[in-house]
Design goal:
about 500 residues; two-stranded antiparallel sheet; nine-stranded mixed β-sheet; alpha/beta; zymogen (chains A, B); Lysosomal Pro-X carboxypeptidase (chains A, B); globular; Ser_carbopepase_S28_SKS (chains A, B); about 35% helix; lysosome (chains A, B); protease (chains A, B); homodimer
Chain lengths: ~500, ~500
């Protein structure tokens, strides 16, 4: 269980229990009739559906499903336009569309049509409708390779059907897992996209390509920078929880102190509480943006600084320390002040496809994570592939293949590819598995010292630090270069 | 039926009816105890087996099968050796091993270990033993993508287990479909192979990338060059067969004149006879080597010249013309003089996996072919995808996806790749779908004017024309360059 929770950070909260039926075949226009102010979602786009093979890599399963994609062509120029193609990741594509303001911001400058393609098995793009998650047989086509093939075939379709698009250069853009997909898309389908912007893409968070502790040590550093003794307070909180939860009275006290909706009953509940707290600190590190934002949760500017204000004294007696920890966590879960109690079984990230990412983590996306309580502020936990594999088998009847992703996408040996920007925020824990040094003069690393998880993909904001403005300018510079170069070919 | 037969040229004669069981797990040494003279197969190698996932691209089917591969390390140098890796195509790998003398000839110069990897579903590498071809469910994993993944995982295994191999540069080499695989392997797995020699690889014989008539027009040109009026004789032979076969007496005469093992009974048999003759001319074009050879059949040097000696007068009366055509075909089928009768149901190519290639042609490897009787010497036949698809569905319960190969491997838009040599013999009908002009300074085309189907991959021979010697020298030059460049990385 803990091993799986460690992987949650890239995705959460299941949208599948709702039992979505197959999406309608007709397209419809987004709710907004006019251009929206840049910071206010939703942007204006059209929703479309495209018939995709369920299995690109085999011929026995010959059925199709409807893949959803969003199109915004307000800035598109038929004569010399480009196409910015968001390689959708683990969630509803409308959410990524509304949270990738960068693409909307640069559309005019690049005469670009924006396309946001939903990843199969997420949002409305369910290959087998509400049976998609029913068993390993139906889940069999949830892989990155199938998703990339979807993208390639969809772009081919757009080029064939949109007047003026045939020779339009396409650039893949994505963040997080979507950034990994953008990079891999350029690597595997360089004939389809002229380049890729892979923001906060931990393509090396696999096998032993980076130390398994790097992720949590970056989280810890963020809290060290967030306020004096902040990380020490968190480090000490685990022992405090363990000591207090050792009695029934303590369990009661803890439940009350943390305003838990369901009181803690046993040590398993305590483990869940600790995992939930860990996830909270992780998510804060990911969304530690320099301005008020609502990405995973509504939060103030530099939220880690805000939570750290409650955790200045790590030497306090257990109960006082934990009351402070509660105040801190409450910033994350209850910044609006509306929550009556906190629910540890409710994940801290919304809008993302928990079930799908669970399955992907149990198959291809095996990202080893570990903590030692020395280089990080967490309870020590080793990476245990065997235990992880057993859990996966129990849950999905599949077993992870940890070496597959490096085998198929090249691991660190990717220098023969070209035209990929890897951008990373130094504050983002995922930057530990990212590319942060130039590989060649066309495999570019951009590091944003004040950046959290793909800050550069967010809409421009008055609170943006200079480093992200520079990063975006450089990204546009390279994209223009790729576009220019591709024009000379036609 | 005819549409399928057109595609036979890349593969034939089923080896599956034999009902091969799973191969032994232990390796054994080849029969020969010492180095063989270069022209005489078998060469000395060890046979090995490696456990491969049946499905690399899905996790529901988690079983493995034993992939056969052959290793020859007599010339291998641990300190600065290279690995030449044959990307096996549609047949028993020992046959390709013994017919790719070029690799044996250059092993010493490149300090190379030779590895010949068998393609799944051929030879002994049957994913489901003798059930592998039982239905579309079992055939589902017979794709080029799965084969490439096998190669990548196998090479990874070799690098991890063979002392000194970890940093050894690997070069993919293949001919025909194997050449396509070699090229695609470098495109999709550039982290695994530093370059590829793709000999006679018709990677553009798909969709409308080249005119569908190019293949048969090259065959025709070969016969035009083979002797005066030779192609006209063949062109006229179809009408003669049609006229004579219109009566029962004519059918009897034809059966006798062609020494057929089973007499012709009806027009369907006549169609088979004509298809069999077409295939004979096609195969002669493919193996029109400048010296006595036994590739598909034992044949004299420049066999087209030999057969054309029998077809100098296209204006002869029907029966005389057809008697000459028989003499010509008899060179191909009965050069040894041992055959008592000719069998039109027996394919003209041996050692290859007919069933497997049939299936591949019905799924991914959809290579449009057509004839018009004007630019070629064949009866006019249009490319009919619909009819082809119906046949495929009848036979395998699958339907071809003609646009998939260009979508996944890039079609003509492959310039962002590197380090691939495309070699083609000008005489080879498959050169029409091949890359015969340089694309970039590292995507090199080598054309061998006197070459038939991958002549350059054959063992060196005193009868080799200068052009193939030059081609091989250039190939070695580039391979050395790739090896040299990769050394600087480590």
């Amino acid at each position: 269980m803990p091993a799986l929770l460690l992987l949650l950070s890239l995705g959460s909260v299941c949208c599948l229990q709702r039992g979505l039926s197959a999406p309608p075949l007709t397209s419809h226009r987004g709710p907004a009739g006019r251009a929206q102010p840049r910071s206010a979602a939703p942007y204006q786009y059209r929703t479309r559906y495209f018939s995709q093979k369920i299995d690109h890599f085999g011929f026995d399963e010959d059925h199709t499903f409807q893949q959803r994609y969003l199109v915004a062509d307000q800035q598109w120029r038929k004569d010399n336009g480009s196409i910015l193609f968001y390689t959708g990741n683990e969630g509803d594509i409308t959410w990524f569309c509304n949270n990738t303001g960068f693409m909307w911001d640069v559309a005019e400058e690049l005469n670009a049509m924006l396309v946001f393609a939903e990843h199969r098995y997420y949002g409305e793009s369910l290959p087998f409708g509400n049976k998609s998650y029913s068993d390993s047989k139906h889940l069999n086509y949830l892989t990155s390779e199938q998703a990339l093939a979807d993208f390639a075939i969809l772009i081919q379709h757009l080029k064939e059907t949109i007047p003026g698009a045939r020779n339009a250069p396409v650039i893949a853009i994505g963040g997080s897992y979507g950034g990994m997909l953008a990079a891999w898309f350029r690597m595997k389908y360089p004939h389809v996209v002229v380049g890729a912007l892979a923001a906060s893409a931990p393509i090396w968070q696999f096998e032993d390509l980076v130390p398994c502790g790097v992720f949590y040590s970056i989280v810890t550093n963020d809290f060290k920078k967030g306020g004096q003794c902040c990380s020490e307070s968190i480090l000490n909180s685990w022992g405090a929880i363990n000591r207090i939860s050792s009695t029934d009275e303590g369990l009661k006290w803890l439940s009350h102190a943390f305003h838990l909706c369901s009181p803690l009953k046993n040590q398993q509940d305590v483990a869940v509480l600790k995992a939930w707290l860990s996830e909270t600190w992780v998510n804060l590190a990911m969304v530690n943006y320099p301005y008020k934002a609502d990405f995973l949760q509504p939060l103030p500017a530099w939220p880690i600084q805000v939570v750290c204000k409650f955790m200045k004294n790590p030497k306090l007696p257990d109960k006082l320390l934990l009351q402070n920890v509660f105040q801190a966590a409450n910033v994350y879960y209850n910044y609006s002040g509306a929550a009556l109690c906190l629910n540890t079984s409710e994940s801290a990230t919304r809008n993302l496809g928990l079930m799908g990412w669970y399955y992907q983590a149990c198959t291809e996306m095996v990202m080893p994570m570990c903590t030692d309580g020395v280089n990080d502020m967490f309870e020590p936990r080793k990476w245990n592939l065997h235990a992880f594999s057993e859990e996966c088998f129990k849950m999905w009847k599949v077993r992870p293949r940890p070496s597959w992703i490096p085998s198929v996408y090249g691991g660190k040996n990717i220098s023969s590819h070209s035209n990929i920007i890897f951008s990373n925020g130094r504050l983002d824990p995922w930057s530990g598995g990212g590319v942060t040094l130039n590989i060649t003069d066309s495999l570019i690393a951009i590091v944003i010292p004040e950046g959290a998880h793909h800050l550069d993909l967010r809409a421009s904001n008055p609170g943006d630090p200079k480093s992200v403005l520079q990063a975006r300018a450089l990204e546009v510079h390279y994209m223009k270069q790729w576009i220019e170069k591709s024009r000379h070919k036609h």
